[in-house]
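Support reply, case 0932

Customer input (verbatim):
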Amino acid sequence: MQTAKNMEVNRVNEPEKNSTTVLTASNTPTKEIFAAPRVVPMVLSDKDPIVLSFDEVPGPKALKYLSTVRYYLSEIGTQVTAGILTFGLNIRSYVSNRKSIRALSSLFDEYGPVVRFVSPVGGDIVLLNHPDHIRKVFAMEGDYPVRSTLESLEKYRLEHRNNLYSGLYTAQGQDWIRQRTLLDVPLHNASTHYANAIYEICDKFTTKIYNLRNHQDEIVKDFYKEIHKWAFDCMGLLVFSKKFSMIDTELVYSQCDMSWMYHNLEKATEAIDKCESGWHAWKLFTTPSWFNLVKYCDNLDNLIGKHVLEAERQLSENEETVTNRNCLINAILLSDNKLSAEDIATILMDMLLIGVNTIASSMSYLLYYIAKHRKVQMKLYEEIATKYPELKVDDITKLKQNTPYLQACIKETLRLVPPIPLLTRILPKNITLDRYNIPRGTLIIMSTQDAAVKESHYDDAKKFDPERWLKEDSSDYHAFASVPFGYGARKCLGQNIAETMISLLTIRVLQKYKLEYHYGDIQPTRSFISRPSKPLKIRFIDRI
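Our regenerated output:
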């Protein structure tokens, strides 16, 4: 009994474990009813941030299981998977929605900004759509960046033509630097020298519009093809210093070099698109697409080579009498960097294949957006009428300076619909993206079109709003959220030419016509080079 009583007394005198003791003014300890929580100082770690392995990169799980097949199949190329990826997504989207998708957004919506696409028959692919990640990839590419090529065109040149020299798009490393150095200054000079002649071609184009209109002032025929012809005539002037006048030509004649060259350029583009976006069966056997690619590229290469040999002969007879040194062929032949006629023809062939199609794509969408947005068109016409009241562009060097709103419209069009929506790089070394370790040699596909329509990068990102580029805070936009001409060492050489041509045609069209569009939205195709997926039924109403 006594022992139990002592224990009870001790328990009463024992302070409560969860209470704190404080001293009052009389130094008498008292108990705090609501004890303050104990603050534990945070211990800062000096360890590096956690880097996750490549296997942790999210992506379609079914493909990861199928990756074991790669040990039993021969490797037929990573590009096969890239083609199947794009083709498969479009088929699935078309079946479910009856329309093509604008980008690879379905994968990004599900897996985040870094997606690993496991290839059963080649190297894995990583898809990106965040500007920070795109900037990081460009920052590490160095002086000799490597991008995936048009494999069909490369195979044609290496195996069919036995041509060791690649063109502008397929060249890599020092070959690309060599071509860039060779063409940089002549391209810039040519766009300035031929500006007035290009404006005359634009004027002929507006006359063609007048003749093609129906009773509703709409273009009945394929308007995109007419824009394509305009781009071909302009590029023909810059490259060959000749007026091809394809705008005025309706029928194709094999006896006419100009007409036959355009026909083969058009058919070669279709064949390359089918080879690159399909199942790549042409790598295993001769498919109809591969047969057409070889046929039309052969014809195109021979026709371009004929012009090169003619220019070379004229220079050899008397180089001092050559008056037109701004012609691209002459500039290349007169340079210190000597190239064979076959090599020059290869370079010019790439310029036509890429240049004509990308310029036609961008011009088509600019006219479409102008026709669709009345207020934009009114403001743009006011700028043009104020700067060029005499219906003529006098000083090409001040074109961009005089037309800031037009340049904003062009920039906004290229943001929404870049002519080449996917940019690729092959990593030269390991890189960490979103804390995932991506090994060297991985094919990176950067969906710049998807990045440019994210609300986190632009307000009302899917809206055509040229004014966004004229605001004071426009410099706050992420520099890599919209890169339609690429970046770094492999940035597009034809940016100045493209912007000049598009500016001149837009000025001339709006000087003569008011544009309207009354049909459904037009989405870009998912081919190698974007183009309108529906006819451009733009209404051209006489202004003068």
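We compared this against your earlier run and they match. Two observations from our side: The chain has 18 helices and ten strands. The first strand starts at residue 21 and ends at 23. Please reopen the case if you see a mismatch on your end.
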